[in-house]
Design a protein that fits this description.
This protein is mainly β. The chain has a single domain, classed as Thrombin, subunit H (Beta Barrel), CATH 2.40.10. 0% of the residues lie in helices and 71% in strands. It is built from no helices and 6 strands. Strands 1-2-3-6-5-4 form a 6-stranded antiparallel beta barrel. The protein is globular, with a radius of gyration of 16 Å.
Length: 107
C-alpha cells in the first residue's frame, strides 16, 4: 500500500472524438473523459531534430487507481504537458500504470 499523498498530481484524461463544424465538415477534437489523481514519474528524455526543429521527447509512467474505459490512444494532460498514452499496464485491480510519451519544442 502507498503512503497518503502518493497520488499527488491532478490530471485530465482526454479521448479523441469527431464533431461536425458549421459547414458539415468533420473535425477531430479532444474531449475530457476523466479527471483524477495520479503519480507521475519521468523515466527518460531525449532530444532530436524533426522538420529542422529541435524536439525533446519525454517518457513517463503515470500511476492511477484502477478504472475501466481507458485505452492506448487517449492522452493525459498535466498542466501544460500533454502525454500520449502508448500502453496500459494493470497492477492487479488496484492500479494502472499508463506508459506515456510527451513532445515539446526544445528551447
Amino acid at each position: 500500500m502507498f503512503q497518503p499523498g502518493f497520488l499527488d498530481q491532478r490530471i485530465t484524461i482526454q479521448a479523441r472524438d469527431l464533431v461536425v463544424d458549421q459547414v458539415g465538415q468533420p473535425i477531430e477534437v479532444w474531449l475530457p473523459a476523466a479527471e483524477l489523481w495520479a503519480n507521475i514519474k519521468h523515466l527518460s528524455g531525449a532530444e532530436s531534430i524533426r522538420g529542422d526543429a529541435p524536439l525533446s521527447t519525454l517518457r513517463a509512467s503515470i500511476r492511477i487507481r484502477w478504472r475501466a474505459g481507458l485505452d492506448a490512444g487517449m492522452r493525459a494532460v498535466h498542466g501544460a504537458t500533454v502525454y500520449e498514452i502508448k500502453a496500459l499496464v494493470p497492477q492487479g485491480r488496484e492500479w494502472i500504470d499508463l506508459v506515456c510519451e510527451a513532445w515539446n519544442a526544445a528551447t
